[in-house]
Amino acid sequence: MKRNGKFFGMTLAVVIFFIAAAGNRAQQIPLGHATGFNSDIYFEPPDDAKVKMKLSGTEAAPLPGGLLDVKQLRVEYFSTNGSTVMVAVAPRCTFAPLGATADSPGHMELRSGDGKFFVEGDGFRFVWQQEATSLSFSNHVHTVMLNGLLKP
């Protein structure tokens, strides 16, 4: 019993410290809503100091189940030399950080870094895993490939 009492006492002290520290801040951060949402994913070693993918949005608000409602989603993929491989944008989506997915019934546009490939559609699901990344559209899909993209 004594051990549990010490653990409870230490936990209580830490909680009180953070409450006091939060009370002394000049500017309070609103609970549950963030502006300027950013999340970076890095390459595997030996390039683990380089950003592979950057997700950002103008706002993010929590949803049930650990999900986030993200406004003005922007997903950027980079090569190991830092050049942009592709950029995808959507006005709004549901982002699942633990499931590594973003989906929406709304619109999304994706453009290659060199501008030779463009696809847009309504209703999308974007999944990124270590092994593979996929993007699925369900409606009104429009694709443009410029001449020279698919060279033999």
Present the secondary structure layout.
Blueprint: H1 2-24, E1 34-42, E2 51-63, E3 67-78, E4 84-96, E5 101-112, E6 117-128, E7 133-145
Antiparallel strand pairs: 1-2, 2-3, 3-4, 4-5, 5-6, 6-7
List the main descriptive attributes of the protein structure presented here.
lipopolysaccharide transport protein A fold, seven-stranded antiparallel sheet, 152 residues, globular, 1 helix, alpha+beta, single chain, 7 strands
Describe what is shown at a glance.
By secondary structure, this protein is α+β, with helices and mostly antiparallel strands.
Please give a structural write-up.
There is one protein chain. This protein is α+β, with helices and mostly antiparallel strands and 152 residues long. The chain has one domain (34-145): lipopolysaccharide transport protein A fold, CATH 2.60.450.10. The chain is 15% helix and 55% strand. The protein is built from 1 helix and 7 strands. The chain has one helix at 2-24, and strands at 34-42, 51-63, 67-78, 84-96, 101-112, 117-128, 133-145. A 7-stranded antiparallel beta sheet has the order 1-2-3-4-5-6-7, with no helix packed on it. Strand 3 and strand 4 (84-96) form a beta hairpin. The protein is globular and about 50 Å long.
By DSSP, the count of extended strands is 7
Shape: globular
User: Compute the gyration radius: what is it?
Assistant: 21 Å
Low-confidence stretches: 1-31
Topology-level CATH name: lipopolysaccharide transport protein A fold
Which structural category do the helix and sheet elements fall into? alpha+beta
> What is the total domain count?
1
Q: How many helix segments?
A: 1
Named at the architecture level, the CATH assignment is Sandwich
CATH superfamily membership: Lipopolysaccharide (LPS) transport protein A like domain
In the CATH scheme, the class would be Mainly Beta
Strand order of the largest sheet: 1-2-3-4-5-6-7
Mean pLDDT: 79
